[in-house]
From TrEMBL:
The keyword Cytoplasm does not apply. Residues 36-47 have a biased composition (Polar residues). This is Protein involved in polysaccharide export with SLBB domain. It comes from Nitrospirillum iridis. The lineage of its organism: Bacteria, Pseudomonadati, Pseudomonadota, Alphaproteobacteria, Rhodospirillales. Keywords: Signal.
Length: 254
């Protein structure tokens, strides 16, 4: 019988990596049995509260990542217009101002900085910044799905769409206890338990994914999440404010 593919995940950060070990609970428990199966929530044990940053639904503005293509225009100083790609170090370079750190920042934040820096030499720069190509929008889907792996996001998608990209659930999947792990703005992980049945039945809205979200479908119970987090998060995956994935895949058969 074919067992699930085993994935080794490594998150590559721009700078020193901060291990997730200190952020992962010793035991992850399911939501209270009184919680409606269509409810989206987070585990509520004491250790869980200390281990994960409280879940925040704020969509926020998109944060630029490595490989994104950024266009900068100065309406009254067109000679400084440029279209640049964010490099592996999280930076891009512009004439007159030099290197600009972009990874993990919003367009508005970078626009403010560029106006300040261009303003040292130009009277009224009025810099305009726009993202012209996205290269960093990917999510990982693992566990009891037919094709676990890392997937590029074709725009804004939800958990259900991501699972469909992984060729759907296996017969052994617990679709009412899907785990979503996301990086919080402070670099620490947030986690929630999601009932996919609520989306299908129309009783709940799908949860939109962010770049680098991790979706895990447990096999028999939420207790499997404890083992998975220890194996693939605590020991392998470091979290930091800015990070990217590389994936090594090993398949085992018996």
């Amino acid at each position: 019988m074919k067992r699930n593919a085993s994935f080794g995940l490594v998150l590559l950060a721009a700078g020193a990596l901060t291990p997730l070990t200190a952020c992962v609970p010793n035991s992850i428990q399911p939501p209270d049995d009184k919680t409606s199966v269509s409810q989206v929530g987070t585990p509520r044990t004491g250790s869980q509260a200390a281990a994960f940053t409280p879940w925040a639904e704020d969509e926020g503005d998109y944060r630029i990542g490595q490989g994104d293509e950024v266009e900068v225009k100065l309406p009254f100083n067109g000679e400084f217009n440029d279209r640049v790609t964010v490099g592996p170090d999280g930076q891009f370079t512009l004439p007159l101002v030099g290197s600009v750190h972009a990874e993990g920042r919003t367009v508005a934040d970078i626009t403010t900085e560029l106006n300040q820096r261009f303003g040292r030499d130009l009277r009224d720069p009025r810099a305009q910044v726009a993202i012209r190509a996205y290269a960093s929008q990917r999510v990982f889907v693992g566990g009891e799905v037919n094709n676990a792996g890392l997937f590029s996001m074709p725009g804004r998608i939800g958990v259900l769409e991501a699972i469909a990209m992984a060729n759907g659930f296996m017969e052994t999947a617990q679709s009412h206890k899907v785990v979503l792990i996301r990086r919080a703005p402070n670099g620490h992980p947030m986690m929630k338990i999601i009932d996919i049945g609520g989306f299908v039945g129309g009783t709940a809205d799908d949860v939109r994914l962010h770049p680098f979200d991790i979706v895990f479908v447990p096999k028999t119970s939420i207790a499997e999440v404890d083992q998975w987090v220890d194996q693939f998060i605590t020991r392998v995956v470091p979290f930091q404010r800015s990070f990217n994935y590389t994936v090594g895949r090993q398949q085992n058969f018996q």
